[in-house]
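Much of what follows relies on a compact textual record of a protein's fold. An example makes this concrete, so a full record is given next.
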Amino acid sequence: MSFGRCYEDFEVGDVYKHWPGRTITEYDDTLFCMLTMNHHPLHIDANYAAYTQHKQRLVVGALVFSIALGMSVPDVSGKAIANLEFEEVKHLAPTFHGDTIYAESRVLDKRLSTSKPDRGIVTVETVAYNQRGEMVLSYRRRVLVPTRALDEELQRQVRARIEQGRDGTSL
C-alpha cells in the first residue's frame, strides 16, 4: 500500500517529470468555471473572447494550477501529512482549449520538523508547460511528509484497521 515518497526519498536537486500530460477540453474549462463560480466572460463567452487580445477563450488559470498540482501528487505529496504553503504562483503564458499540460517538480530544500522530528518539510518548485514546450505556470510549495519510520507505523495502523474490518468488527 505504497503511494508517494517519504522524507528520506527526497534529495535537493531531484527533478520529477510528471506523466502523463493532460489535454484540457472546452468542457473541462467550462465545468471548472461553473463549479468555482468564475463567470468572467473571457472564460465562458466565445463571442466576447473573440474581441480580446487572444481572439479566443482562455483556460482559467486556477484549472491549470490544479492540473499541475494534481499531476505532482504521486511524486511529491502522495504521502503528505499536509500542504503547508503555496507561494510565487505565476501564470507565464495563456492556455487554450486543446492544449496539453505537462509538469515537472524540482526539490529545492528539505529539513526535519523542529517540533515533530518524525516528519519533514520538503520545498519544491513545479513548472507546467504546454505541448509546444512553452512554460505556462510555475509555483513553489512546502509539503509536510512523514519519515520512513512514521510512514511504516501509519501503514501498520491502516493494515490493522483493515484486518479488524475483515473480522467483522467495526472500523
Observations:
- Strands lie at 15-23, 82-91, 100-112, 119-129, 135-146.
